[in-house]
Amino acid sequence: MDSLPPTTGPAFLSAEEGTQRLREMVEGFFFRRLVGEDGEPVRRLLVKSPPGLGKTREAMEWATHYQTEQAAKDSIFDLFLDDITGGGVRAQVAIFVPRHELAHEIKQTIERNLAALGKPVAVPILRGRDHGAEDGEAPCRRWREARELGRKGLPVYSNLCRRSQERQVDQCPHFDDCDYVRAWKAAYAAPFVILVHSYLGIEWEAAGIVHGGSAWEPEDKTEGEKNGHAVPGRRFNPTHAAIIVCDEDPTQALVERWSLKREALRAITEGSLSELILAGVDASDGLLSYLHDKGVTPERLRTAAEARRRDEWTQGQVTSPRTASADVGKAAAEAAPLVRLSRVLERLADELQSGRPGPAYSFLVDSDKLIAQGRRTWAFDQARLLVLDGTANPEIMRQFVPTLEAGQEIQVERNARVIQVSDRTFWKGSLIKRTSNADGKAKAEPTARLLEVGDFIEKMARRAKTLVVTNKPVRCALTGEQGSLPISAQYRGADVAHFGNLRGSNTFEGHDTVIILGRDEPSVRDAEQRAMAIWYDTKEAIQCSPEVAGRVNYRKRARRYLMRDGSTKAAVVATHPDPRVQAVVEQTRESEMLQAIDRLRLIHNEKRKTVYILCSISLGLPVDELVTWKELTGDRRLRDALAECDAKGWDALSLAAKELTRLFPALWETRGV
Fold it and tell me: The whole model's pTM is what?
């Protein structure tokens, strides 16, 4: 068996070396040849390598090889028991992706692989009820009603599709020929099923997306009778799959946060618990200390959570599936939002159990409102898990999947010329200013600095096909867009996209230049609160930054730029003193910048591409040129002459190059001539 490589500092590999390392790791996972430090096969693995190396393609190739090999075995005694679903499907693989665009690419890859192996099959993609509604392609005919129920936090299936109780069955008039339901039924016996990340956080065992049941509602068993007993419906449940593949970091879909009014706590009818919690959120020592002092135990909170969960199921039934669509929509619109206090109580119980005193992290005070937050339950403990991502943080992921093992990061040389600005972060406040429209709505307007950047963007776009990635408000200030945004929009000849909206996309692999404008840095308090949501049940308190003169700022710390020649140069970066909060900051800031750079697919490209990083934060990438903003946007004739020298070769233009040295020594020095 192959041993799991140690998680030491990686060296930069060639594309061929990186591909071979990736292949060994992914093949070893699927065929159980990869072992951990305990000598046992690795069941849950994070593979971390740059986008563009081919992680997804490699994983789908070995997944199809493994699944077809298991399906071809003559005897079930030759199989691993955890490879067989309840429906008898061997080595069923559920694949979770961040966007439907990637789902279709993976579907095509798997179907090609299976056809080449002589096992052609259609791979289902399970869409939301309203997906494609704008184009008239929603799989559910009552998607508007489904969307309204979802906005209120109300259960959709039991209100809209089908509900059985005490042998009475109510179902939608379209149930038997519903494309949405049909897809989930067809996926039951499919060897591969593709879903989006948003399905990861569903409490599958309590209320399946098609199953429609709950812990207190009788199981839907109307598919037929056998020997006088009901036969459960044959519908796909991803928790029953043998292998889960997550393409891209799934943790964004596994943290929930919502606000509620204080009055909502009155629904907790167990003793005086609601009054104790209300008093505790305002207590000087914090809610956890207050509850502990009042003798409230984790068991008491969990008992109350169980009672609330039963009541929430009843309160969530606001209509009947057989009701006309107009009446369903009206009932949903008039219904009060369903507040899941059971989750609040469960998380408070976990926090009390940790023994940490002080304020609660899962239940925060925000002016006159309260914020409930925390990790969603990871429902796939029985399945093997493969996570593919270029920038995932293993420590964050282990809060959701404690047994996750991280393979050695595969660092691969990118075929790109990287130019980075060292004297500015291009923070959002320097690029946009807030104004008001005639109707009083706030609008982002470009500053003089952003207009200056706009000239630079136009100049680069004239030379090559250019992608610009920046903050969403800065994008809107450039393009004038509002509301829901597509993946990109045009601005002065370039495609402009924003951080957090690009993962998994191959849309820009044909571009030659990418400009990273600024960074997506959360505020100190936002980063701290997200860390609290992830580590809400930690025993070790999260260290929060103090307020100084009415402001809360990050600390400045030294970091190094890695230069192409192997040398380093000094840099300064904003950091948080608590490593868990810093991990959250970097997951939003540095990771999204790297994800944006790699949209150009810089590993297997034959033509060298160009990366401009208009932000001084060191990303760990080898930098060819470290310049100031003034140097980068100097005299146009000088810049054009330098570009000509780069294109035609410095030897042929040595006399001109020496003159350029005299005119602009900083740029000359960065080229190492």
Answer: 0.88
